Amino acid sequence: MAKKFYDCSNSYYDKLHSYVADDLTVGCPSCHKLLNRRLSYVAGSSAEKLTAEDGGFVKGVVTYMIMDDLEVKPMSTISSITVLNNFNVKEIGGLEEKLVPFGVEEGLMLLKASFECKNVLTTVFMA
Ligand SMILES: [Zn+2]
């Protein structure tokens, strides 16, 4: 939901009333009238816009993990342990971190692989 902002109705005539509040209970420091003229918030970058509108697949700033079949899950310590259990990982030392390049080419390979198989990330990045 978009955030609402209010300013003093006298700000149109006089810069001394240029204040903004995020609720209707705040008075203008210049004239003490309630800041009650509704303003519309316009998001700057596309990233801010996504968060402001609560749109997109991942909401706000969260850590998440993407499974091999491209399923997106929120990440926590518990969920990480669950994943290790599900894959029957007994030796933590056997795990390996892998940084992968990601550009248009990889994006297209991911798209293609997602139509053809369930182990998308393995197909694209471990081949
Ligand atoms: Zn005012």
Radius of gyration, in Å, reads 24 Å
**SSE order, one letter for each helix or strand:** EEEHEEHHH
**Number of spatially distinct domains:** 2
What can be said about the biggest beta sheet?
3 strands, antiparallel
- Tell me the fraction of residues in β-strands, as a range: 5-15%
Low-confidence stretches: none
Which ions and ligands are bound to the chains?
zinc ion
Q: What does the average pLDDT come to? A: 84
- As a percent range, the share of helical residues equals 25-40%
Number of strands: 5
The strand order across the widest sheet is 2-1-3
**Content-based structural category:** alpha+beta
Anisotropy-based shape: elongated
Distance between the termini: 43 Å
Put simply, the count of helices is 4
Descriptive overview:
The strands form two sheets. Strands 2-1-3 form a three-stranded antiparallel beta sheet, with no helix packed on it. The chain contains four helices and five strands. The mean pLDDT is 84. The protein is elongated and about 70 Å long. With 127 residues, the protein is of the alpha+beta class. It has two domains: 48 residues, no CATH class; 54 residues, no CATH class. It binds zinc ion (ZN). The site of zinc ion has 7 residues, from loops. Zinc ion binds next to loops.
